[in-house]
From TrEMBL, chain B:
Classification via PANTHER family: SPERMIDINE/PUTRESCINE IMPORT ATP-BINDING PROTEIN POTA, SPERMIDINE_PUTRESCINE IMPORT ATP-BINDING PROTEIN POTA
GO molecular function, one term: ABC-type ferric iron transporter activity
Protein name: ABC-type quaternary amine transporter
Keywords carried by this UniProt record: ATP-binding, Cell membrane, Ion transport, Iron, Iron transport, Membrane, Nucleotide-binding, Transport
GO cellular component: membrane
InterPro entries, A to Z: AAA+_ATPase (IPR003593), ABC_SmlMolc_Importer (IPR050093), ABC_transporter-like_ATP-bd (IPR003439), ABC_transporter-like_CS (IPR017871), ABC_transpr_FbpC (IPR015853), P-loop_NTPase (IPR027417)
Length: 567, 238
């Protein structure tokens, strides 16, 4: 081992001499190459978000607000003062606020049980709570219609609220559980010893310390609720419209681009405000959190456990109703709806069979997942660095924010924006099937980033330093250390991205062509057509789609990565 | 000069001067200890030598400047106080890391790497630990793995940043002797950063005392004790 007598070293020295390459020149160029590589890496997510998000959205907004190159103030005022607009904005905010409040109340006991107690079936409960979150929005809508069929609640505000809560309980339960796990229970014990009762301890100590994660969960749930599209479209029908469904109606049915743009801008403003608040509250989270020992349930835990069991059962009810509906034809038990999935529906409602649509969906989702992972991984490696220069740090914050935008901006706006911007040179993709996976990837990227980034940030810069002094060039440090540590999280993110792409409806509904329709689009088309057979087929197709999503979630859960803690 | 020469090296963090115009020479095969109280700039100097901290002045190896070399080309392995083991790799994965990633080592075959890892683990007293998870090891074992991992890189210079200070005293004293024997056996040139003069005396051939970023005196522990340059050094060594 005597230093330079090492054979490898001798080989290297002789190679260096042969090349006759003045070493300092090579090193200067390698430093420049490193900087260039980082800039190129930053370009990947920025170009993707720029071309496939900012440009389409900006041009929609531009067409609506600047019809003749000038800001059309009178037009904006006219749209905003329409009674219908006022009612829709009010309804959207009110409903999202109510759904968020209910979700918080229901999510807290589940968070407590998941973070503090140890019992058999904890892993199953964790996974079960996550299931609704990954179900496609259209499937959730159909499930609630199946549940409430022939009751006064069908098509009511209550149905929409219930569906939104169903969807988001997982976000609260799992986000809050992650920070609840890292609260030191001894502080609560100290307060008890000082004479505070259990309720007082919960309010003055526990709630106060959980406040940041509750606020973060609340803002993300509000975001999801206020931009929900598929669920509201299926359940609200013509009666109840939110900003998102109204944008869809205005662009596709009335071709009123101006009104649609004004609503898009209103939505973007709300979403931006929310994202800023969320970022403030969340700070730079890393995956390094302490986890205190869980304990066996005590008698005093009974109410919380009972509540959790009830909530878990309640989450299962709509899915059971969906399953039951799919197995009935004209009121009788039958597998006919599943057999019909090989057909194009009653009165040939469809261009492709639901099985073919599932094939399309899987193909598109796979492509979208690949794209989302590529963009997300590059972005995360970049965002996990803390550069010395303040300018570079501010640049990174910018990239961070830009990547979160697609989370909240109307998918409908994005989809429609694609149609009007990407249909002429230099980029004519309208006739190409790549638009669907690109739009789906755009929706999945924020989720990938929020899952991977905390894990990558937990890799300290000193660990990378250690690897570098062991002889690893920067790119090998990324491959062997960053991606090595984040490997499991990357697999989990891949699974989540896949389910998101599979269920994406808002943008896909604009972009998928009838002969290459995805399953959610086909399901929506089926319920829009009269005839009991078509509704039964929609239920059967929803069960199939839900089964695929549940299978993916089961795989993700086996990896034991804190996925929902990422929001 | 054969070995390391540090000339007039200064490290600044904004307004603060952590290392102030330090010059020193370490011939090949010598183990040199940088001794000083916390905050004296020892670790900053070590990181500057490794190429992890920007500095002014000149750092040379065998009369060739390494100032423009990125850390991974310098072949100066740095062992951290807390080991910085890679949590996603097992013991063999950590120790063999340098053999797999370094461009110098390209062409090393799997059996060759496995054999080298086994030799190194044997050297640090952890024979047979290859498949163990690094997170399951005790503090002392983790530092042994970190040492083996640094030696695997066949560094021209081994930089040890308080390698024993995270351990309890008894273990620290025992490992100090072992560390000295391992460094002697491999003949590697090394710089040890420590605030413990007994540890420096046991492990190093020569000691340099750093105070407020300046190198105030160098010599063997006996020389320093016999002729301290000022009261501060005398008090620090007592």
């Amino acid at each position: 081992m005597g230093g330079d007598r090492d054979p490898v070293t001798l080989i290297r020295q002789s190679r260096g001499r042969e090349a006759g390459n003045p070493s300092h020149l090579r090193r200067i160029s390698s430093r420049g190459a490193t900087a260039a590589a980082w800039i190129l890496a930053a370009a990947v997510p920025l170009v993707f978000v720029g071309v496939f998000f900012a440009w389409p959205v900006a041009s929609i907004v531009g067409r609506g607000l600047f019809p003749d190159g000038m800001l059309d103030v009178a037009g904006i005022v006219e749209v905003l003062s329409r009674p219908r607009t006022v009612r829709i904005i009010g309804f959207t905010i009110g409903m999202a606020a109510a759904a968020t409040a209910i979700t918080l109340v229901l999510g807290m006991p589940v968070a407590y049980v998941l973070s503090r107690l140890r019992f058999r079936g904890r892993g199953v409960l964790r996974a079960a709570v996550l299931v609704p979150f990954v179900l496609p929005t259209v499937v959730v809508g159909i499930a609630f219609r199946a549940l409430l069929r022939d009751t006064p609640l069908d098509g009511s505000v209550v149905a929409i609220l219930a569906a939104l809560v169903f969807f988001n309980v997982a976000v609260v339960a799992r986000t809050v559980a992650v920070s609840w796990e890292s609260l030191d229970p001894r502080q609560e014990e100290a307060a008890r010893v000082l004479g505070a009762g259990p309720v007082r301890v919960f309010v003055t100590i526990t709630l106060r310390r959980l406040a940041p994660s509750i606020a973060a969960a609340a803002s993300i749930v509000f975001l999801f609720c206020s931009t929900a599209f598929g669920t509201v479209l299926v359940l609200g029908g013509a009666k109840y419209a939110t900003i998102e469904t109204e944008i869809w109606l205005l662009t596709t049915q009335f071709l009123d681009l101006r009104a649609a743009s004004v609503l898009s801008v209103a939505q973007i403003v709300v979403v931006l405000l929310l994202l800023v608040i969320t970022a403030r509250v969340r700070g730079r989270t890393t995956a390094q959190h302490r986890s205190f020992a869980t304990r066996r349930p005590r008698r005093s835990d009974t109410p919380v456990i009972a509540a959790t069991v009830l909530i878990a059962l309640a989450l299962a009810v709509p899915l059971a109703a969906l399953l039951e509906r799919s197995l009935r034809v004209a009121g009788e038990w039958s597998g006919g709806n599943y057999l019909a999935l090989a057909s194009t529906g009653g009165r040939n409602a469809l261009t492709v069979t639901p099985w073919q649509a599932l094939g399309n969906s899987l193909g598109f989702a796979a492509a979208a997942t690949g794209l989302a992972m590529l963009v997300g991984l590059v972005a995360c490696v970049l965002l996990s660095r803390t550069p010395r220069s303040p300018v570079a740090r501010r640049g990174l914050d910018l990239v961070d924010g830009a990547l979160m935008l697609p989370l909240g901006v109307s998918a409908v706006t994005v989809g429609f924006g694609f149609l009007i911007t990407l249909n002429s040179p230099p980029l004519d993709l309208r006739t190409s099937p790549v638009l669907v996976p690109i739009a789906q990837a755009l929706v999945a990227v924020p989720l990938v980033v929020r899952t991977l980034l905390p894990v990558l940030r937990s890799v300290g810069s000193r660990m990378r330093d250690a690897a570098a002094t062991l002889g690893a060039p920067p790119w090998r440090v990324i491959l062997t250390i960053d991606l090595g540590v984040a490997g499991r999280a990357a697999l989990a993110a891949t699974g989540l991205a896949f389910t998101v792409a599979l269920g994406e409806f808002g943008a896909t509904t604009f972009l998928s062509r009838p002969d290459a329709a995805t399953l959610p689009v086909v399901i929506y088309r089926l319920i829009g057509l009269p005839g009991g057979d078509n509704a039964g087929m929609a239920a059967a197709a929803s069960v199939v789609l839900a089964a695929v999503c549940v299978a993916v979630v089961a795989l993700v859960e086996r990896l034991r990565v804190d996925t929902a803690g990422a929001f | 000069m054969q070995g390391l020469s540090v000339e007039n090296v200064t490290v600044r963090f904004g307004e603060v001067t952590a290392v102030d115009a330090v010059s020193l020479g370490i011939p090949r095969g010598e183990v040199f200890a940088l001794l000083g109280p916390s905050g004296s700039g020892k670790s900053s100097l070590l990181r500057a030598i490794a190429g992890l901290e920007p500095c002014t002045g000149d750092i040379r190896w065998d009369d060739e400047s390494v100032m423009r070399m990125p850390p991974h080309r310098r072949r100066f392995a740095l062992m951290f106080q807390d080991g910085q083991l890679f949590p996603h790799l097992d013991v063999a994965g950590n120790v063999g890391y340098a053999l797999r990633v370094s461009t110098r080592a390209s062409g090393a075959t799997r059996p060759a790497i496995a054999q080298r890892v086994a030799e190194l683990l044997d050297l640090v007293g952890l024979a047979g630990f290859e498949r163990r998870r690094v997170t399951d090891l005790s503090g002392g074992e983790q530092q042994r793995v970190a040492l083996a991992r640094s030696l695997a890189a066949s560094p021209r210079l081994l930089l040890l940043d308080e390698p024993l200070s995270s351990l309890d005293r008894e273990l620290r004293e025992r490992l100090a002797g072992e560390l000295r024997d391992i460094l002697r056996a491999t003949g590697v040139t090394a710089i040890l950063v420590t605030h413990d003069h007994d540890e420096a005396g046991v492990i190093a051939d020569r000691i340099g005392i750093l105070d407020a970023g300046r190198l105030v005196q160098t010599g063997t522990l006996a020389e320093l004790r016999a002729h301290p340059v000022d009261d501060r050094v005398a008090r620090f060594l007592s």
